[in-house]
Amino acid sequence: MAASDDPYDHRDLIDHRDLIDHRDLLRLATAGSVDDGKSTLVGRLLYDTKSVLADQLDDVRRASVDKGLSTPDLSLLVDGLRSEREQGITIDVAYRYFATPRRSFVLADTPGHVQYTRNTVTGASTAQLAVLLVDARKGVVEQTRRHAAVVALLGVPHLVLAVNKIDLVGYSEETFTLIAKEFTTYVDGLGYRPDAVRVIPVSALHGDNVVDRSEHTPWYTGPTLLEHLETVPVEPEPHDMPFRFPVQYVIRPRTAEYPDYRGYAGRVAAGTVRPGDEVVVLPAGVRTTVARIDTPDGELDEAQAGQSVTLILADDIDIARGDLVAAVGSAPTVTDEFDATLAWLGDRPLHTGARVLVKHGTRVTPAIVTGLSARLDEQTLTVVPEPPSLSLNEIGQASLRTAEPLPVDDYGHVRRTGAFLIIDPSDGATLAAGMVGARLPGLR
What proportion of the chain, given as a percentage, has pLDDT over 70? Predict the structure, then answer.
């Protein structure tokens, strides 16, 4: 199809998801309060990096005309569900893919309403960088501090504050400076180093300092948002960590072609494994070696974090779904009692003595909450000792005892096997995101 003279026509685009496996990759999450313009900012990033396909843009243009707008409403590139558009809000986590010549990106866009803070936990759980938005007219608000505390709790190493709608305060340097000072002081209390935090004045509506540098902010000499995303150092990938492999399924075809086949299928959670590596199966503690790594496309010489494979072990040992195969030299601790930090996501408060389910890797086991030792006030970064309960969106320290021993890592050491979920045994609803041994944000 011939290219159009229409500046809003991106018909020559490719689907950048095809590039994700072949470039330097950054995983990022966005969060902000309602009406801070987060959807417009994400839409601007997608549009200005030419990551919008023609049919998507056509839909947005038609919807914008229906709203009486003369230019496309870029927020509609993000708020794809009809119910979201009707309400004017984003209500779930949406994953977006885009790329530039320098880097590929996976963006988790999370909602702004306070009752959906739980979705921020989901979106930020694998992020290497978080972009928080504030309205330049309002500055840092309660939800900003809550989101910053959540991403600090989850160990997101890099943080950006996008001071949006800077045009609505006349591109005021003074306003920007006051907001930047308040925010950096707050996140310093969360443990962020100055070089891990960047504050950028932007106008998502007009594109100021999002992809292109703005002539309206000559006083700002830092990078645009995209320049920062392209150049921020990426933390080591999970394949550089100790090997962890939660067993999802035991494969025993029992056919004439494969009479003795016994494989253990799952996804590598962390580390790298090769044939000949010595491993330990937990919680039993039985040692063996990896004989072969199978995939539907054939055998592999090695498998890294994120790959779904089937391990063939040298010995015929008793392994079931929920077991963990780990490197012998750096195996996790097997225990039925541990302390953890919880981000409480349930509508009903958590009390000491609550009986729950703990989902760790592929294993689910009954558990009891034996104590609540602390709750974080994320607005003041003070700790309330021995709280009577944890309520929706609150962050606290708890002790748990599980019915079965679990092979757990400290979350600060291996995030994938240091994380777990607390589930309501009555209806299967997720009640909390947990981090084994994680300290409350702000406690150094």
Answer: 80
Question: What digits encode the pLDDT tens for the residues 280-305?
Answer: 999 999 999 999 999 999 999 999 98
Please give the pLDDT value at position 53: 54
Q: Which neighbouring-strand residues pair with 66?
A: none
Q: Is residue 293 part of a domain?
A: yes
Q: Which domain holds residue 317?
A: 239-330
Statement to judge: residues 227 and 186 lie in one domain: yes
In the three-class reduction of DSSP (H, G, I as helix; E, B as strand; rest coil), residue 279 is classed as: strand
Asked if residue 109 belongs to a domain, the reply is yes
* Residue from 411, 407, 413 nearest 397 by CA: 411
Tell me how crowded residue 254 is: count the other CB atoms within 10 A of its CB. Answer: 9
The answer to whether residue 142 scores a pLDDT higher than 70 is: yes
Range with the lowest mean pLDDT among 53-57, 196-200, 297-301, 417-421?
53-57
With the C-alpha atoms ordered 267, 272, 273, 277, is the resulting torsion angle positive or negative?
negative
Look at residue 85 and tell me if it is in a domain. Answer: yes
Look at the chain and report how many structural domains it folds into: 3
What does the H/E/C string look like for 352-388?
CCCEEEEEECCEEEEEEEEEEEEEEECCCCEEEECCC
d(CA 435, CA 309) in angstroms, rounded, equals: 26
CA distances from 316 to 211, 260, 287 (A): 56, 10, 11
**Residue-averaged pLDDT of the chain:** 83
Q: Please indicate, yes or no, if residue 219 is contained in any of the structural domains.
A: yes
**Residue for token digits 């003074």?**
174
Rounded CA separation 371/300 (Å): 46
- Rounded mean pLDDT of 186-210? 92
Q: Give the tokens for residue 403.
A: 């019915």
Q: Per the structure block, which two tokens stand in for 84? A: 């979201």
The more confident residue out of 415 and 17 is 415
pTM of the predicted model as reported, rounded to 2 decimal places: 0.76
**3-state DSSP assignment of residue 27:** strand
CATH number of the structural domain spanning residue 101: 3.40.50.300
Contact indicator for 108, 139 with CB cutoff of 8 Å: no
Report the interhelical angle of 142-153 vs 117-124 (nearest 10°).
Answer: 40
Residues 6 or more apart whose Cβ sits within 8 Å of residue 270: 238, 239, 241, 242, 243, 244, 305, 414, 415, 416, 417
Task: Give start and end residues of each alpha helix (H) in 190-326.
Answer: 225-231
| Residue 7 confidence (pLDDT) above 50 | no
